[in-house]
Amino acid sequence: MRTFVVERYVPRPTVSDLRSEGERVTAAVRELEGFEGAEVVYLRSIYIPDDEVSFCLFRSPSAEAIAEGFTRAQIAFERVLEAEVLEP
User: Fold this and answer.
1) Could you give the angle at which helices 15-31 and 63-72 cross, rounded to 10 degrees?
2) Which of 1, 6, 39, 64 could anchor a disulfide with 59, C-beta 3.0 to 4.6 Å?
3) What is the per-residue pLDDT across 27-59, written as a single tens digit (0 to 9) for each?
4) Are 58 and 40 in contact (CB under 8 A)?
């Protein structure tokens, strides 16, 4: 699976809000017709309070599956981009 980042603009969410929204997206994808077997896994979120921007990381076979999950869960997002995650 590939890694994607979802860019969102949100006013001061709590950690539990971000985690809950990530879980709602993954649950919504499981319910979508046409995306059967499209395992979307929420990894983590990075929130930058000064800019009210959040970057949510997901593993998924496609950006479309993630976007459909956000849409179905009624969670606003700006865009979904493939990402390279580099860890030490």
Assistant:
1) 110
2) 1
3) 877 776 666 666 788 888 888 888 889 899 999
4) yes
